[in-house]
Amino acid sequence: MNSVNMRHHEGMREQLHEHHGERMLSVNGVDLCIAEFGEEGGQGLVLVPGASSASDWWDDAFCEALAAGGLRVVRYDLRDTGRSTTRPLGRADYTGDDLVEDLAALIRALDLVPAHVVGLSLGGGLAQQLAIAHPETLASLTLLSTSPGGDDLPPMSPELAASFDEASGSPADSTRSDREAHFREALADERRFGGTIPVDEQRIRRIADRVFDRSIDLEAGANHWGIPSASGTRAQLADIAVPTLVVHGTADPLFPLAHGEALAREIPDARLLAVPGLGHQFPPPETWDLIVPALLEHVRSAG
């Protein structure tokens, strides 16, 4: 990257820091970039993103809608995404358990115990393990587009499997060398992982551009695909004692709806919200009228 582009990146990061209230939080031996919405005294709700995804994919307006319900909403970049501690591609020095410990340490450092935690895809897996390993940190659990794992559940759609084959079988093979290439890849991912809800290209460009401007290393997120998974077994879902809401799309091509149904069945007293047309994706605005009230009601009922 030349000096002009470097100065541009640094300037954009500073502007984004000021605009979104971002700050760095040192926990568990790493620096995590967080952004907060709502009043500091509200009940804490932490949004945990999916693999390789910077926290920008939790739309500002989605976070603000949750904060309007009286919550202190925190979104953060996992290691190797956004502005959080980043390792070169292929040189990750952590495991899924470390990501769980990052989340637990973040909740404690922000004085949110017990917090409401919302995890999507990989983030949902981390949230499941948090509920098993550190139940005292949780007031409630919401699991989006995730899975308990297991060979008895349906595989990804043939179309999605074919798209991986065309990309040499791994999302880590992609490159994001410039802004336009990054946008094109983000748009392609939204289309192949999305459901039947039309893709808003302007929304994807807006988010992808912001991720491009504020990320330390866009390729590093692919490290998530190669790290050891967090501990915990499917049988331990029966030990989860916090109120749990499972939100799952009816058109998820990676984890078909049966994965969400299994979570809701195997976590005691969990409730399932099936979202028509939603795929394996951060909730697009078309789903917020259903998801946001359900999530706020879940939080209220959990106390």
Features:
303 residues, alpha/beta, Rossmann fold, eight-stranded mixed sheet, 9 helices, 8 strands, globular
Detail the topology: elements first, then pairings.
Blueprint: H1 3-20, E1 22-27, E2 30-37, E3 43-48, H2 60-67, E4 71-76, H3 96-109, E5 115-120, H4 122-133, E6 138-144, H5 158-166, H6 179-193, H7 201-214, E7 244-249, H8 257-266, E8 271-275, H9 288-302
Parallel strand pairs: 3-4, 3-5, 5-6, 6-7, 7-8
Antiparallel strand pairs: 1-2, 2-4
Helix pairs in contact: 3-4, 6-7
State the CATH topology. Rossmann fold
Number of helices: 9
Tell me the structural class: alpha/beta
Biggest sheet: strand arrangement: 1-2-4-3-5-6-7-8
The CATH class name reads: Alpha Beta
Total domain count: 1
Q: Give the overall form.
A: globular
Fraction in helix: 25-40%
The radius of gyration computed from the alpha-carbon positions, rounded to a whole number of angstroms, is: 18 Å
